[in-house]
Structure prediction request, 79 residues.
Amino acid sequence: MIIIGTSIVTLIVLIIAAVRIYSEWSVNNKIGELRNRSYCKRLLMTGEWTEDQLAVILHLHPDIGAMMYNSKINTSGSI
Prediction:
C-alpha cells in the first residue's frame, strides 16, 4: 500500500515538473521570436501584438517598439 502511494506521488511530481519545463520553454521560444527584427516588423504591419510583446520589443528593438507604441496611440487614443 505504501509503495502504491509513493508511486502515485512520484508520478504527480513528475507531471508537475514536465508542465513547468514545457511552459518555461514555451515562454523562451516566444521571446526568441521577438529577437527577430523581421518578425517584429510583421507584427508592426499587421497591428496584432499584445502589450507584453510591445514591452519586450521596446527593450530589444527600440525603433520598432516606438513605431508600434505611436501607432497604437494614434489609432486608439490611448494604449
User: Anything to note?
Assistant: DSSP finds four helices and no strands in the chain. The two ends are 58 Å apart (CA to CA). The first helix runs from residue 2 to 34. Helices lie at 2-34, 37-46, 51-60, 62-76.
